[in-house]
Design goal:
5-stranded antiparallel beta sheet; Beta-lactamase; alpha+beta; 23 strands; 4-stranded mixed beta sheet
Length: 621
């Protein structure tokens, strides 16, 4: 009998071992059980993978399979045109050429592909490291095409065509051109390529679509976008095109008619730019609104940006992409005093006859160090002042006392003051139809104790009564409250867009005047008293904006200077409206880090009011 040890490796390899020579050993039952278990696990794993591929990744592989036999050529739809209130275009569409790469048509060799990509990058002025990063970061599951340029130049097209490269495709497209660069950039915004988040939120979007990224381009994107056309090319196994079909015609976007006055906007931008340049300053904002209905006639931000080169603005100083007019939060300074005046009169702590004496400061006893009382300053000694004089002279002492109280003069207190802030809607967004709006911040004792572990003191009330301390508002909130003063108590929702029209000129959307709040019954005759005080700001020789008295119509105004950064700089505000008896326009001017406080805003306001009178009011009558 042959023993197991007599079998050699050569016998196994040459299959020369006889059956009789084999040593038979029975297999244990547990071996079968282990085998069956492993086989079962493998089968379940295979079943799960098949289910995932057929269900979870079905769309992906269907797209990949379709891509192997066909190509889709998108015919981009032109975005809708945006017009001003008089039908003047604010932008236009110009033809452009998009350059796509289709890597599956490149040479198979990795070295050849890299060489080719580097050559294409040189023509398109894209450094190799940047191009490689973009290729690696692209989500190839969304599309086999890679957009290398959305606006190729003529020379680039000629150079690429001369190479005769398979896998490089040109598709006609459009680019947005602002009629007046910079002046309208924050109103209009800009467009950019879609990302994964955009596509997840909107099934109608496809890769390489453009969507609005800021301004009303973003806010009204779905109306402006239009519907892309689509043409499909079918290939055979050799990659040759055998058939083509147009499966969808392109449809242009809808038309937006705005309330913006193009000429007024351009004038305000130019005038404020010149003023900032002469002051050696860089940041400002201006807004014009119709107090009768909330129509935004102009909205200016400086610094601005060129919508054709948004990338440059990303690294530019002073954050030119930031829309300060709706998103900046500022101490309002003395522009808050008309509101405080309405509150004090309505709460009954003063009447129009009440006079308060300003010797230039008041002192509050210091319980911790009696020899060092807290001193709160007026900007100058103003003598005896009533509500009209207090607004005209911008007396701090008057507003300290009617809010926080002093000696025999009661104040309304911080709780009532905050209630009036809210009544004038300083705690809410206005709802203006543009991206980026924020709401103001209204401090109170509870907030201070929780955040600073420090009690609210009468000095805090004094500070916020003149628009200092922790009170913050946005320029659009500030102007909207001044508009409500102008029209005697109605808050309208600010509106940039008037209506949206389809290609056949039918109205798809009409942005009608919307009343946010009506406080006329709350303020009664007291708002007229405050309006009279704002008129005295201009009319009286001692008024802080008396230089506007020479305008050909009656103007009401209020100036404001807010000390910020530990008094290291001041921001200057101007707010006003005209004509006084029946206001048609209310404006706001902001100069950050002003040289001479509100004095830097008044000449700008004068010229804007004069322009409006000569170019709009006179032509209407």
């Amino acid at each position: 009998m042959t023993r197991r040890s007599d079998i050699h490796l050569e016998d196994v390899l040459t299959d020369r071992v006889d059956d009789a020579d084999l040593l038979e050993v029975p297999v244990a039952d547990k071996v079968f059980r282990v085998f069956i278990l492993i086989a079962g696990i493998l089968f379940l794993g295979l079943l799960a993978e098949l289910s995932y591929l057929n269900v979870g990744e079905r769309d992906f592989f269907e797209k990949r399979a379709a891509a192997n036999m066909s190509d889709e050529k998108i015919q981009p739809a032109p975005r809708g045109i945006i017009f001003d209130r008089f039908g003047k275009p604010l932008l236009r569409n110009e033809p452009a050429n998009k350059i796509f790469l289709l890597p599956r048509d490149f040479p198979e060799s990795s070295e050849e592909r890299i060489t080719l990509l580097k050559k294409i990058g040189e023509i398109m002025n894209i450094p190799w490291d940047d191009l490689r990063k973009r290729i690696e970061e692209k989500d190839w599951g969304q599309s086999d095409k890679f957009l290398i340029s959305a606006d190729a130049t003529h020379n680039q097209l000629v150079a690429l065509t001369a190479l005769g490269i398979r896998g490089v495709y040109v598709e006609p497209s459009f680019k947005r051109i602002h009629e007046i660069p910079f002046a309208f950039s924050h109103i209009l915004g800009y467009t950019g390529l879609v990302n994964t988040t955009d596509m997840e939120g909107d099934a109608s979007l496809v890769i390489d679509d453009e969507v609005g990224r800021a301004g009303i381009e973003s806010y009204y994107d779905k109306f402006l976008r239009g519907t892309n056309g689509k043409e499909v090319f079918y290939r055979n196994a050799k990659g040759e095109i055998e058939d083509r079909r147009s499966v969808q015609e392109s449809k242009p976007g809808n038309t937006l008619l705005t309330n913006i006055d193009r000429d007024l906007q351009n004038f305000m931008y130019t005038r404020l730019s010149d003023a900032l340049t002469s002051l050696g300053r860089n940041i400002g904002a201006a807004i014009a609104i119709n107090p009768k209905n909330g129509e935004i006639m102009a909205l200016v931000n400086i610094p601005s940006f060129d919508a054709k080169d948004v990338g440059a603005a990303l690294t530019a100083p002073f954050n030119p992409l930031f829309n300060r007019a709706v998103g900046g939060r500022y101490n309002p300074g003395s522009t808050i005093k008309p509101l405080v005046g309405v509150a004090a009169l309505t709460e009954g702590v003063v009447t129009t006859e009440t006079k308060i004496f300003s010797k230039g400061y008041i002192e509050i006893p210091n319980p911790y160090t009696p020899s060092q009382p807290s001193k709160f300053l007026d900007w100058q000694p103003n003598g005896w002042v009533n509500i009209y004089d207090a607004l005209a002279r911008s007396s701090n002492i008057y507003f300290y006392e009617v809010t926080g109280g002093f000696e025999n003069q009661p104040g309304i207190g911080i709780d009532a003051l905050k209630r009036w802030w809210k009544k004038f809607m300083l705690d809410k967004k206005t709802g203006i139809d543009i991206a980026g709006e924020r709401e103001g911040f209204l401090p109170d004792p509870t907030w201070k104790e929780e955040e600073m572990n420090d009690p609210w003191r009468v000095g805090d009330t004094y500070n916020v009564s003149i628009g200092q301390g922790d009170l913050l508002v946005t320029p659009i909130e500030l102007l909207n409250y001044i508009s409500a003063v102008a029209n005697r108590g109605i808050f309208y929702k600010p509106r940039i867009v008037k209506e949206i029209r389809a290609e056949d000129n039918s109205i798809l959307f009409e942005n009608k005047p919307e009343v946010l709040s009506d406080i006329r019954n709350d303020v009664k005759e007291h708002i007229d008293d405050v309006r009279k005080g704002m008129r005295a700001v201009v009319e009286k020789p001692y008024g802080s904006a008396h230089s506007l008295a020479g305008l050909p119509f009656r103007v009401a105004a209020k100036t404001g200077t807010a000390q910020v950064q530990n008094n290291a700089k001041v921001n200057a505000f101007f707010v006003g409206f005209a004509p006084f008896d029946d206001p048609e326009i209310a404006i706001l001017i902001l100069v950050e880090n002003a040289r001479e406080g509100s004095l830097n805003t008044i000449p700008v306001a004068n010229d804007i009011f004069l322009w409006y009178y000569e170019n709009r009011l006179q032509k209407q009558h």
